[in-house]
């Protein structure tokens, strides 16, 4: 049965002044997104303590991180479509409740396998809260400046959670690694209680012909297998039979998925949305942006801790300027996007990202923080503040309400799969020589030399994101010239006016 729609929030969302309930709704959604991002970054610093306490090997310990990524990245497509079909409010709140329970469970277990299982279930729940939350925003706030403002605040909270997760983890791990697992639980419970009162009900999409079960099975299986294969490849080898056969199976599943989506009347993903150049640029931009950022954070963390001997807290504080810049920009970026458009803002952000990574290539064995590391972190913070909100706005603009969950799931899939794939490739590049690991007794110079190819690769991905989005500027100029030409009075035959957009 279709849930009743509450018209008040929609009316308020179109006004210049937001009602307290509308602000409350946005804060609940921001809290969930903050927790999702926080959970991705916060566990990294705690891994050594977890391994020591639960007696986990290195190969087992990686699944504390990979289990979350597997559940999150593998089920986002299904989570986005479920929000459209089952109701965004219902999916969001149920998944948020599961997130709270598994956070509590993960902080209390005394078994490695149980901890990994809790991380997988937590990632699964995030795969439903993320697209549901984003689609609630895009269907509640009217497209244009109002939605841009809401999305800027929302995505800034995500970037802030990811950046500050390192700082919080460094502080909490000094007391106990369990606090890093337990911290999200009370915040999620508070957000859940507030969400029950504040989040408006939304209509469910009419189920014409039922659900796309074959698409859900093949799509989810392909994403799960892709993330699993990429996460395991650096350990088992990229050229091994197991890895190659897994990639072949992914290709077969994706081919079957596309064939099903082209034929079914109720697809999990309507592939027609990818005919939009802006949509494709947003998805590819998400892959290169987040994948490069996660890889850079990995290299920088290893450099500061393993090579320079910085503590977890000192390493976390090194990233603090970037997180502070992102947090302070929450209410400012929307105005920038409204004035210049998403394409220009994304291009500018990627250019700053390239500069940030390139500057970090200057690192040596005795770096000066103010002269070497700090400039990279400042540029990184500005770039994240510009790119992340703009990608979300560009991906969701012009999309019908009943497909917002689908597009949100697709964007989040691009983010998570991009992070997993590019991080795995970067890790493989760093470890390719087998001579740059501190554990093997390599010299500091050899360790540093092993990091540089990874930094070059990260910079190259940022350049790729920049070039991809530069094509959007050319497309805008072509559309503008066609619009101007078509608006001129003609005595022969009228031309169709083309709408200019990002």
Automatic annotation (TrEMBL):
Residues 25-477 form the Major facilitator superfamily (MFS) profile domain. GO terms for molecular function: transmembrane transporter activity. The chain crosses the membrane at residues 26-48, 60-79, 91-109, 121-141, 153-173, 179-199, 211-231, 243-262, 283-304, 316-337, 344-363, 369-388, 409-430, 450-470. Residues 492-502 have a biased composition (Basic and acidic residues). GO terms for biological process: response to antibiotic. GO terms for cellular component: plasma membrane. Residues 481-502 are annotated as: Disordered. The keyword Transport applies. It comes from the Bacteria. Its main location: membrane. It is found in: Cell membrane. Keywords: Antibiotic resistance, Cell membrane, Membrane, Transmembrane, Transmembrane helix, Transport. Residues 481-491 have a biased composition (Polar residues). It is a multi-pass membrane protein. This is MFS family permease. It comes from Streptomyces spectabilis.
């Amino acid at each position: 049965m279709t849930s009743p729609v509450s018209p008040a929030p929609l009316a308020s969302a179109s006004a210049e002044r937001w009602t307290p309930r509308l602000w409350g709704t946005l804060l609940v959604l921001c809290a969930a997104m903050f927790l999702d991002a926080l959970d991705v970054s916060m566990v990294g610093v705690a891994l050594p303590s977890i391994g020591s306490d639960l007696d986990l090997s290195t190969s087992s310990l990686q699944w504390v991180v990979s289990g979350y990524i597997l559940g999150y990245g593998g089920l986002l497509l299904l989570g986005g479509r479920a929000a459209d079909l089952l109701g965004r409010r219902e999916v969001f709140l149920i998944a948020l409740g599961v997130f709270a329970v598994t956070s509590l469970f993960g902080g209390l277990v005394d078994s490695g396998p149980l901890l990994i299982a809790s991380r997988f279930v937590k990632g699964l729940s995030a795969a439903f809260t993320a697209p549901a939350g984003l689609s609630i925003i895009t269907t509640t706030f009217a497209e244009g400046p109002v939605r841009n403002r809401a999305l800027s605040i929302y995505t800034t909270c995500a970037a802030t959670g990811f950046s500050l997760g390192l700082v919080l983890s460094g502080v909490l791990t000094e007391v106990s690694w369990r606090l890093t697992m337990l911290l999200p639980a009370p915040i999620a419970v508070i957000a859940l209680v507030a969400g029950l009162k504040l989040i408006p009900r939304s209509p469910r999409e009419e189920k014409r012909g039922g659900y796309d079960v074959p698409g859900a099975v093949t799509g989810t299986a392909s994403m799960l297998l892709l993330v699993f294969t990429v996460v395991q490849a650096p350990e088992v080898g990229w050229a091994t039979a197991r890895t190659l056969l897994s990639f072949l199976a992914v290709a077969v599943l994706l081919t079957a998925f596309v064939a099903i989506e082209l034929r079914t009347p109720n697809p999990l993903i309507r592939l027609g949305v990818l005919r939009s150049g802006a949509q494709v640029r947003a998805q590819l931009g998400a892959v290169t942006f987040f994948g490069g950022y996660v890889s850079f954070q990995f290299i920088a963390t290893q450099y500061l801790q393993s090579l320079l001997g910085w503590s977890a807290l000192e390493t976390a504080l090194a990233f603090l300027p970037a997180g502070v810049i992102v947090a302070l920009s929450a209410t400012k970026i929307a105005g920038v996007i409204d004035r210049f458009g998403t394409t220009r803002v994304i291009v500018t952000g990627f250019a700053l990202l390239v500069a940030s990574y390139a500057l970090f290539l200057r690192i040596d064995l005795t770096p000066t923080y103010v002269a070497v590391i700090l400039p990279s972190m400042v540029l990184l913070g500005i770039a994240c503040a510009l790119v992340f909100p703009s990608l979300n706005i560009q991906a969701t603009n012009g999309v019908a309400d009943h497909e917002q969950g689908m597009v949100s799931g697709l964007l989040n899939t691009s983010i998570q799969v991009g992070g997993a794939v590019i991080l795995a490739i970067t890790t493989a590049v760093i470890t390719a020589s087998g001579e740059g690991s501190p554990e093997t007794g390599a010299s500091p110079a050899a360790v540093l030399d092993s990091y540089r190819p990874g930094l070059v690769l990260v910079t190259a991905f940022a350049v790729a994101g920049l070039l991809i989005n530069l094509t959007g500027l050319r497309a805008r100029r072509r559309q503008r010239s066609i619009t101007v030409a078509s608006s001129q009075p003609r005595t022969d035959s009228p031309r169709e006016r083309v709408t200019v957009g990002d």
